[in-house]
Amino acid sequence: MAEAATKLAVKFDKKPTSVPAAPATWTPFETLRREIDKVFESMGGGMWPFTTGRSPLLSEAFWPRVAEWPVSPAMDVAVKEKEYEITAELPGLEEKDVEVKVANGVLVIKGEKKEEKEEREKDYYLTERRFGAFARSFAMPEGVDVGRIEATFAKGLLTVRMPKTVEAQKSETKIAVKAA
Predict the structure, then answer these.
(1) Domain boundaries, the chain
(2) Domain 6-15+71-170 has CATH 3.30.360.10
(3) pLDDT tens digit string along 133-145?
(4) In this predicted model, what pLDDT tens digit does every residue of 114-130 receive, in sequence order?
(5) What is d(CA 21, CA 159) in angstroms, rounded to the nearest whole number?
(6) Closest listed residue to residue 144, CA positions, set 171, 170, 164, 167
(7) What are residue 129's DSSP bridge partners?
């Protein structure tokens, strides 16, 4: 059964807003931890069998770390005949977790993921929490009909359509490419 796409409200701010900086993908403490582990592991395993204080089963060789939530989600930008289209992959998010805003010629897409997991068994108790937020900003090209921008969300996929004005559609000129 197909799930219908849900329309999201696009907010329009009159006041100037600053464009949030893209979060860095560098994780200094994780990198430092790996480098220190390498130093201790290079000293040999005979004298210090578990220098890192971890069991060999918990090492990264057995359980590699995989990013659960990338710093910035994948987004595709397409220029079509009558509109511009931005598609964002937002797995695990719902429409209430996503915000689309236009201010001062900038389209801002924000999202926040909050996930909590709790397991209680006879001999253990496990609690995990994951939080992550992102913001992507796009300078809107000239000729966008701002009043008709539309955002839809379905099955973890956000689609923002920015229709071109009639003048912008007519002003395009195709240029022939010649072999040199």
Answers:
(1) 6-15+71-170, 28-58
(2) no
(3) 888 988 888 888 8
(4) 888 888 888 888 888 88
(5) 22
(6) 164
(7) 116
